[in-house]
TrEMBL record:
Name of the protein in its database record: tRNA threonylcarbamoyladenosine biosynthesis protein TsaE
PANTHER family registered for this protein in UniProt: TRNA THREONYLCARBAMOYLADENOSINE BIOSYNTHESIS PROTEIN TSAE (PTHR33540)
Source organism phylogeny: Bacteria, Pseudomonadati, Pseudomonadota, Alphaproteobacteria, Acetobacterales
Key words of the record: ATP-binding, Cytoplasm, Hydrolase, Magnesium, Metal-binding, Nucleotide-binding, tRNA processing
Entries under InterPro entries matching the protein: P-loop_NTPase, T6A_TsaE
An annotated Gene Ontology molecular function: ATP binding
Membership in a protein family: Belongs to the TsaE family.
Record's GO cellular component terms: cytoplasm
TM segment ranges: none
Length: 154
């Protein structure tokens, strides 16, 4: 596990951009944390980085449940599963097809048995200074080989 201090929204955006440079088709990023923890902020930065467009509008998929983006590396599906009770409805949302590209999932605990074991899991939690701590689990070798993470973080 790797912990990264995110004192502000700009640090969260830098983490998203660093992660975007590592992603490839078949990858899954699971974003965990309480309401207001910064999951959507991180997802927006990651998606903008993947698509190479800092001004791209990235609406929260809280009500649509999934938004799909065409990125140069692969199609990216951003799922927000807050309103789902469990994995039953995921197939109707195109989960299986989305897994061929890159998926970013907010509220991944609702994936149940569909949660990919090889995913990068990022848990965002408040710190004592009013910022956030990002706990990254998984992809140890990939994170270690990335210049952005190999020397102390994003």
């Amino acid at each position: 596990m790797r912990e990264i201090s995110l004192p502000d929204a700009q640090a969260t955006a830098r983490l998203g951009h660093a992660l975007a440079g590592m992603l490839r088709a078949g990858d899954c990023v699971l974003l965990e944390g309480d309401l207001g923890a910064g999951k959507t902020t991180l997802a927006r930065a990651l998606l903008r980085g993947l698509c190479g467009d800092e001004d791209m509008e990235v609406p929260s998929p809280s009500y649509t449940l999934v938004q799909v983006y065409d990125a140069p590396v692969a199609e990216v599906a951003h799922f927000d599963l807050w309103r789902l009770d469990g994995p039953e409805g995921l197939h109707e949302l195109g989960w299986d097809d989305a897994r061929e590209g890159i998926v970013v999932v907010e509220w991944p605990q609702r994936l149940g048995v569909l949660s990919p074991s090889d995913a990068l899991r990022i848990t965002l939690a408040p710190d004592a200074a009013g910022g956030r701590i990002a706990r990254l689990e998984g992809w140890d070798m990939r994170l270690a080989q990335s210049a952005a993470f190999g020397t102390g973080g994003a």
